[in-house]
Amino acid sequence: MALTGIEIFKLLPKTNCKECGDPTCLAFAMKLAAGKAELTLCPYISDEAKEKLSEASAPPIRPITIGVGERKLKVGGETVMFRHEKRFENPPGFALLIGDTMDDAEVGRRLERFKQLEYERVGLLLRPDLVAVKSESGDAGKFASLVEKVRQNSDASLILMSDQPDVLAAGLKVSAEAKPLVYAATKDNLDAVSALVKENSCPVAVKASGLEELSKLTTKLTEAGINDIAIDSGSRTVRQAFEDQVIIRSAALAKKFRPLGFPTITFPCEMTDDPMKEAIIASMFVAKYGGIIVLSDFRGESLFPLLVQRMNIYTDPQRPLATTEGIYEINNPNESSPVLLTTNFSLTYFIVSGEIENSKVPAYLLVKDTEGLSVMTAWAAGKFVADAIGPFVKKCGIAEKVKHQKLIIPGYAAAESGGLEEELPGWEILVGPREGAHIPAYLKSWKA
Amino acid sequence: MAFEVPKTAYSGKIKEVKLGKGDKAVTIGGESSYPFYLFEGEMPHPPRIAMEVFDTPPEDWPEAALEPFAGVTDDPVAWAKKCIDDYGAEMICLQLVSTDPNGLDRSADEAAAVVVKVAEAIDVPLIVWGTANHEKDTEVLRKVCELCEGKSLVVAPVEEGDHKRIGAAALAYHHTVAASTPIDINLAKQLNILLGNLGVPDDSLVMDPTVSGIGYGIEYCYSVMERDRMAALTQQDDKLQYPVICNVAKEVWKVKEVKVSEAEDPKMGDPRKRGILLEALSSMSLLLAGGDVLIMRHPEAIKLVREMIAELTAK
Description:
The structure holds 2 protein chains of 2 kinds. Chain A has helices spanning 5-11, 25-33, 47-57, 104-116, 140-153, 165-173, 190-200, 211-223, 238-254, 275-287, 300-313, 346-359, 375-380, 386-396, 417-423, 439-444; strands at 64-66, 73-75, 93-99, 119-121, 124-126, 130-134, 157-161, 181-185, 204-207, 229-232, 265-266, 292-295, 326-330, 339-343, 363-368, 406-409, 428-431. By secondary structure, chain A is of the alpha/beta class. In chain A, the strands form 5 sheets. Chain A has an 8-stranded parallel beta sheet with strand order 10-9-8-7-6-3-12-11. In chain A, strands 13-15-14 form a 3-stranded mixed beta sheet, sandwiched between helices. A two-stranded antiparallel ribbon of chain A has the order 1-2. In chain A, α1 (5-11) crosses α2 (25-33). The relative contact order of chain A is 0.08. Chain B has one domain: Dihydropteroate synthase-like (TIM Barrel, Alpha-Beta Barrel), CATH 3.20.20. Helix content of chain B is 39%, strand content 14%. The longest helix of chain B has 19 residues, at 271-289. Chain B contains 10 helices and 10 strands.
């Protein structure tokens, strides 16, 4: 549990020196408890108090960063079991496996797919995060040259996979500055691997058999001053792996059990040989607490659904996804194509634009910024009413794109049609269907 | 620091509901923990999958979804039998698409006659799903309830606007009601109370939270279902302790992402596998949020989800 203001106060110098900017130590303590001040503002804090406080204020699941630069991945830092309680913070990273026994052509194809498979949705770029380079041959030189090749041809963050410290060392020699995740420290190699990651200041993954052993290993690492850890309980059956994810998360959050307070790394690629099955197992880890999800391969048909699922589950429930205001051209419209209007709630936009696409009728879709509210809610909130819509239609530039002056508004905003005719002199306001599903039938009978 | 497995404090349990009749009847519900948290409680009846049959040949299904049902999509009886015989369906959901007033607008009598034929031809539980148009559903589902007396159907969707008349018919002819509300825990609870007041017994009620697929708002129903389960299991909210039914396939297979070809957008990969995975992954997410019955379409998606249910509940 986080400390209360009073508990923090007891650890402060209690001199009321004001150097932190607050009038009293108590006021400063209260700010610290609320997360509104930094401990470093107090110049007289004792080392012992500092340690106690930073330990107590540390997040229950430590956030760790893998990689450097634009594509670095932050995982962990989660604070809830259910997304509606607050939100899930850091989406799990998807990793593509590349082994050192694969031939050059295959490695090249995989790196190419890693680069290619990116998708844009609601103005966000959805893409995978990591390449997991795995030593299958046990040959340190082979491993290092593959790591180098991946680095030269990709900006992916890296996972180095081997249980041999000398192989990992060879990989680190050519990639340490890229801060790869070193997988894995086990009970058999703990000392050697912990020396390696300490020397190279890289995050490390611990692999154990079971949660008990896992806790012991992470405790040893933290005692050695290593804190950037990802954890693998070793379970590879669906039921056990699922249960481990849930138990790890709740032990860290509900019990503040530090030895399991780290992001997890999961391996659907080691749980089945069937790519379709692998995808559904991966989706389980997206929903239930996976930190990194390693896949045997990336294919559009499975990566796309997983990336979108991840975006959905990690959306902030308090902040609806919204799309950009403006004119959307669908099915190559021309000057006599119909003009439809809707709001910028992303779901509303997807449904309406999808139905227009389905209709095959070329059309313009005007999307009005309603701060991410759907048609009915935006209308009720006064954000989708005549005096808001009118100016938008005028300034968006649709009048220059079509030669008619007809605007189709959503059925649920029918009450605005009179007001809109006043706001937009010369325009004819047509009331369209209430439900997206009825748009195709409506458009097919539309005449300019 | 010794490791101790944390346990959720549960105070409630989901009610058991038996669907259908005879040897092939299926019991759902009964959970005393969050979905698949078997280290904390029990899930005496694993979630079940109902296979979807349309009462009129589907018009906008992509090839991938039609292919497994080639030759039977114009005959709901043959279609339902194929689902059972070839794909091992444990339940059938007959979607009364033809009754949509904005579509074919087939009459209640005609539609009900098809339901009777299907109900007579199969022995697994039958779910009958209308079009969510209050007036039309009232007409159609009342007729269905009457003509299928003794078949113990599940009738859906029963919404606030039509719950009295459809609920009364279901009650009179001993069918189970699927109480349908638009993605909102309070509305769900309220409708369950209304149906209870009407006399619908606890063992004849399931909840439809209104679901959607990946990319089309699944996060909303996902969280509402999680909140339903939390209230039911940990906050003694007995008016939410009902099994949940998810009509998911028709949401997944209507979106453009299952229709776009690989030639149009190579990054989207094989369209057949993509459709199957969008259905399977959407269903998996809903299972983890608390789904007890999933209405699904593609046999391969169903196979994947069945395997996951089996493995998640494996001893």
